[in-house]
Design brief:
The chain has about 260 residues and is mainly α. It has two domains: about 60 residues, Winged helix-like DNA-binding domain superfamily/Winged helix DNA-binding domain (Arc Repressor Mutant, subunit A), CATH 1.10.10; about 150 residues, Four Helix Bundle (Hemerythrin (Met), subunit A). The protein contains eleven helices and three strands, in the order αβααββαααααααα. Strands 1-3-2 form a three-stranded antiparallel beta sheet. About 5% of the residues have low confidence.
Length: about 260
């Protein structure tokens, strides 16, 4: 899948890119320990690019750091999902308004060109194959190009990080059947036509309607998270005796992608 990655200047950037994508895709699961040596073998690069790539991802919210213990994949919760999703939508609206106001002709041309390229990428639901990754990258590239007209790299970076966190919840927990029934190519063409009209309120309403169509899919994420949290064992009260240890069980086989992904 290396050909899917954007042109990146260094092994560190490539390692950070693929570690980020694999966390978002669910190859590495919530709370999973992130260890340098296994990642170095998995991606086929040295320890230094992996270590630097991990540091690049610290501010994104996809990793959590434990003092003197290293990094884990960020945990998941219903509260976090609701918080991240709402902030993503709020910042998205701000960027849209700015883009409609500030975007120049060169921005319009880039949006139209990216729409054309996106329309050539088949929409794929199967999360196991490269086709799904190609579709998700094309989808994100179009939305990023639309928002780039806002003229704020900081704002677009924040939205991209939040978008990755929302996407991780979808990849981990969503039932994608309702998404399969949507014609995203048609919806994107309609959105771009409205964006080019430069009516900010109409643009906001159109994108609100676009995101609202994903509500059935979001409902399945909420249902899964709520079910997980309801079945969590109760915490042992402070000072209570520990229960006797259970017999050792064989470790479960890792379900993440097997083999070595070279990023060089």
């Amino acid at each position: 899948m290396a050909e899917l990655a954007p042109a990146l200047p260094s092994l560190t950037d490539k390692a950070a890119f693929w570690l980020k994508r694999d966390i978002v895709r669910g190859v590495f699961l919530p709370n999973e320990r992130i260890k340098v040596d296994p990642l170095s073998k998995f991606y086929g690069v040295g320890r230094s690019p992996i270590q630097a790539g991990i540091m690049q991802l610290e501010p994104t919210g996809l990793l959590s750091h434990e003092h003197q213990k290293g990094h884990r994949v960020a945990p998941v919760s219903l509260a976090d999902y609701d918080d991240v999703r709402q902030l993503y939508r709020d910042l998205y609206r701000i960027a849209l308004r700015r883009a409609v106001k500030n975007g120049d002709m060169a921005w319009e041309e880039r949006v139209v060109l990216t729409l054309h390229r996106t329309s050539k990428v088949p929409k794929v639901i199967d999360v196991r194959g490269e086709g799904r990754e190609m579709w998700q990258m094309a989808y994100k590239r179009l939305h990023a190009e639309i928002l780039s007209g806002c003229g704020s790299p900081l704002l677009t970076a924040l939205i991209a990080d939040l978008g990755n966190r929302v996407e991780r919840y979808v990849n981990l927990f969503a039932d994608l059947q309702s998404d399969l029934e949507r014609d995203h190519h048609k919806e994107h063409r309609e959105l771009v036509d409205i964006v080019l009209e430069r009516d900010a309120q109409k643009v906001i309403e159109a994108f609100d309607a676009f995101f609202q169509r994903a509500q059935p899919m979001r409902d399945t994420v909420v249902e899964k998270l709520r079910s997980m949290e309801e079945t969590k064992p109760a915490r042992r009260p402070r000072g209570a005796a520990r229960p006797p240890p259970e017999p050792a069980k064989p470790a479960a086989a890792k379900t993440a992608a097997k083999g070595r992904r070279k990023v060089s």
